[in-house]
Amino acid sequence: MIKTLSFPIKTLLLNAVFLSCITQVYANDQVSSASQRVTNIPHKAVVYQVFTRLYGNTNTNNKPWGTISDNGVGKFSDFTELALKDIKSLGVTHIWFTGVPHHALIQDYSQIGISHDDPDVVKGRAGSPYAIKDYYNVNPDLADNPAHRLAEFEALIERTHAQGMKVIIDIVPNHVARGYHSSYSAARHFGENDNTRLSYARHNNFYYVQDENFSVPDVTMFPLGGEAHPLSDGKFHESPAKWTGNGSRLAKPDKNDWYETVKINYGVRPDGSHDFPALPTHFKQKNTAEHLAFWQAQAVDTIPDSWKKFTHIAQYWQTKGVDGFRYDMAEMVPLEFWSYLNSHIKHTNPNAFLLAEVYNPSLYEDYIQLGKMDYLYDKVGLYDTLKAVIRGEKSTTQIATTQALVAPFADHMLHFLENHDEQRIPSADFAGSPEAALPAMVISATISRSPTLIYFAQDVGEAATQSPGFGAPTRTSIFDYVGVPAHQRWMNGGKFDGGQSSTQEKKLRTYYQKLLTLSRTAPAFTGDYMPLATGDDKLFAFSRFNKVQQLIIVSNFDRVHGKTLSLTVPKSLLTAWGTARLEGDNNAHLQLRDLLKPALEHDYSLIFNPEPDLGANIQLKLAPLQSVILALVN
Q1: Which of 239, 292, 301, 513 has the fewest Cβ atoms nearer than 10 Å?
Q2: What is the pTM of this model?
Q3: Is the CB of residue 470 less than 8 Å from the CB of residue 221?
Q4: Segment 311-329, tens digit of pLDDT
Q5: What is the largest CA-CA distance in the chain?
Q6: What is the C-alpha to C-alpha distance for residues 388 and 339, in angstroms, rounded to an integer?
Q7: CA angle, 385 as apex, 419 and 559 as ends, to 5°?
């Protein structure tokens, strides 16, 4: 989203409703069975989100409001075979290339026929990746030859596929840049056939403020930091004014509105009623082919024009080799649209990876079952809980409660500790150090069968301390031309060997490599889940298991104190493992090995209790911030 403004809006949207939406909570001996879920995956996906503009940039100037000449910019060509192999070494299965579609920016590309963007309606010099200017082309900043930018991105798709990874890009359905205009001759442009004399019409792409012209809001941060620019005059011609991206109906939006964008009309009337066919609720049980058949049976004129445009956009990118999409602020467009779009996408590619930014837990089930999403953000649940535990604001007992709330669709909840919206882990407003979040990262990556997302430079502890211009410290700016210091040290001029990295950074990356690769390859992580009681609000433990492999994961969130504990493995879990036959034997025990350590190191014993109903115990010693992933040794 348009991040420095949208982050607080998103938090206010739905953070407070999480615990009131679902009431089921696991007991400590209750098993979450993968066999009861709808997802059938051979392994966990690992998604590497990369801000494409920043990834390959080796310039270290970081001048506030710097130009490309000042601060440099990364290119598609920076994703060399070596770079892609380096990404894959983190266990990555999918790369989400953020900021690829052509968005509004302040750079002169008029020599190749690209119109200028007005700084008064562009955030930052490099522009927001969520103010799309042309859905049928890519950001010219990213190309060595901007005139051939699309071909350069297609070559990157091919290189990524050659390394065995899939490609994801953004679709931002709720809004487009105020200066949207596609250069693609086969596309019908947004708004070109709108009846601007009407505030609303089903097939209008935009909403209009009648008899008023658009006025630039009174902003506190001057465009380009106050630098002179021919178009920076506090004016932008738009007549009549369109509704703003976040839904503001004012001809002069507020400075906190998403004023650089205009809202797309999906057949939702200004009073909130729907002007399109309703999807029957029993379609929760229908597959994507049946959803597609439903929409194909509707009269053509009943499908809003914007639905068709975005479906054409998605199909266009699929023909280019894109394997999936991340949908920005999916809640801000109607659910039926997602059924329409995703059923078309899955008809073309049944294995397409569809990820939605959704924050309202009361809507999760509908977006998965009716909207046909594969995955949703687990932001107001697991992310917020883990962040609070890291910061000492919540007990680890809340983790099991939070996970229980999404039990019916846990496999569909994408887990992360960083992305372009969120603060970097080492920032004082989050964990204060990269190591302080490692127990949470272990849990985030292993607690369910859902995908794990890692944001580029997270693995080397990037702290985002710069003040780059429109962006602010603690988050790597998505609006400015900047370098990412920790990542630049790891890149080492394109060698990707950590040649300039600190010992701490290299150690951290090795840990991420081990953990994420393990999360993707260990058989137990496609199996079942059971939380385990530790009796300590700084410890969290659970089991992941199937017939092939049985694991115990324990994490210590205490930054200062080590922990010694006798972890009880209840009889119900032993039975699920198939090991209950050893109960009652005073000498019965099984060996466990920590998969986060080298082979044959740090062995532990699972000692069966002579009283069968008491299960078994594991004696553990954990250092501050240590986690173990203990595998039962046959």
Answers
A1: 301
A2: 0.94
A3: yes
A4: 999 999 999 999 999 999 9
A5: 86
A6: 35
A7: 90
